[in-house]
Structure formats: C-alpha cells, structure tokens
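Hey, I'm writing a tutorial for new members on how sequence and structure tokens pair up, and I'd like a real worked example in the thread rather than a made-up one. If someone can provide the structure for the chain below, I'll link this post from the tutorial.
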Amino acid sequence: MADQNGHIDLGPPRDTAAGLGFPGPPPPIYTCTLTPELVAKAREELQEKPEWRLRDVQALRDMILKDHPNLRTRLDDAFLLRFLRARKFDYDRALQLLLNYHASRRAWPEVFQDLKPSTVKHVLDLGFLTVLPRPDPQGRYILCLRPGKWKPNDYPFVDNIRAIYLTLEKLIQPEETQVNGVVILVDYAGVGLSQASNPGPLLAKKVVGILQDGFPIRIKAVNIINEPRIFKGIFAIIKPFLKEKMAERYVLHGSDLASLHRVIPQSVLPQEYGGVSGRLDMSAWSRTLLEAEEEFVVEFCQPDPLEGVIMPDALLFEGEQGGAHGEDSFRHLRSQLYYCY
C-alpha cells in the first residue's frame, strides 16, 4: 500500500491479504516466507512439497550445471524456485523455461539492452501502467495497463514492453506472487486506430511468447474494459499466438463495471473503476520501480548470459523467420482495423 510519500512498501513480508503492503523478496539465504495457507495452496496447485523443496531446487541446479555449464544465470534457491513453481515442479519444463527466459534477451535486444527503471521513466510518468496497491481476495496483485495514454509519436511502443517486463520482474520476487499469480486489467479508454495498429503481428508474437513460455509468472486472468469496436482487430492480432488456456482467461467487460466487479471486488479497485480504494495512484509503483534501479542494473546490464552456450535446436524464439508472411498478415489485419473503426 502506498505510504504518505507515495511509496509501496517493499520491506519485510506482511499480511498482504489485509492490503498492508507489497511484500519483499525472500531473504538472501532462502527461508520459506509462505503462510501455512499458501504452503497448502502450493502443494495442491503446484505439486510443491515443502519437505522436498530444496531437493527439487538442487536437482534443477544440477541439470543447469551439467547440461549448460556456460550459462551465466543465478543459481540461488529463491531464483530457481520461480521456474519450478511456474512449471509445477517439472524439472525439464522448468529448465526449458529458464533457457527461454535468457534466450529472450538475445532475441530481443531492443527490449533487454540496458533494461533498468530509469530508462522507462517517461512511460511511468505518462501513466501507461501501475500496480494496484491491494491484492484481490485470492492474493493476486493487479497490473493495470492503460494503452490509451500512449500515442505513437510519444515514443516507440517497445518502451511500453520494457516497462511491463520490469514490472513483472518486480512482481515475481515475492513468493506469494509465485504461488498466487497475477491479474491484468487493461483499460482501452482512448484507444484509437493509431494505437490499435501497434503492435504488429511480429511484435505481438514476441510479447505473447515471452509471457507464455519465457517468464516464470502465472497470469490468472486478463480483464479488458472500455474496449472500442476496433478491439476485435486488436485481438485478431494477439489471439493466434495465445494458447487455448490463456485465451480462455481473457474477459471482455466493455463499459459494464458491474461485470468487472464480479471478478475484481470494488474493495481493491480505485474510484475510476467504480471501486472504493481511493483515486488511481500512478506514482506509487513508479517510485517502487525507480528505487529498485540498482538491482536491475545488476540483473540486466551485464554481458549476454548465453554467450558460449549451445542452445537446443528447437527454441521459443526463432528470430524473424517468416517475416514476409507476417507483414502480409499485418496488412490484412490493418484493413480490418480500418473497417472496425
């Protein structure tokens, strides 16, 4: 929760269900910070057994050291647990997720080069995104995106992606988020044709690929509000790259706030969305990210972690193969956008 200075508390873990502050990451020497209720939830939903947790982490660590000894990656317990939880403690799938996580940096340097909060301050200042200070009743923090705040002549769209990625990196640090997942709320108010035609299919494919197969986070729902008629064209760009399970988690509410309140209670929503949690504060999360500058410098402003690493033949990111086909698809979809508009 934002304090009087507009900060979201990142100190010791707190009772997040009561909305008392965004929890901090686990301690440097790993000690489980999950409540008994979340331990039980992780056991049921993620196949995480507390008595085997460190054994499982060591097994993944051994696989990395044996199969990819040149991979420059963190090997501490807390970091590797993110990938095991995201793949329900399947060692092979967790390892592939870790490789995809690092491969995304090589495949998309315009996003990951010099990735730190100060480089996206203009995105934060514009109000493109924030994280609501209180989690929902399931303990899931809500990432709020407002694409209508951005105009193509403001800055490249890829800067928005950089800000989203940094936000997800910060959100995934606490164990609570690793177990509960996150909810995304997208407000399309003010989105016109110029925004709708960004991103194109190739950019959309990369974003969806990272979120589905290259980042250790559980996206439990994507709620869309105030979507214009042209959203059909926007979704037509995204949907071909969504897995069936993820596509089913998209919920379109239009301007019906009562529909939104059935899935996100008013107690955690700001007044702008019919809630009772005060005005929408865009500055608190901005401060949280900017104060984490140093940790992101350590994490992302380093040499290529895959340098010298031999990757599997089939990997998530395949460069720009099929680019001509993608451009043809984009031209077709753009004509659809004009028709909807």
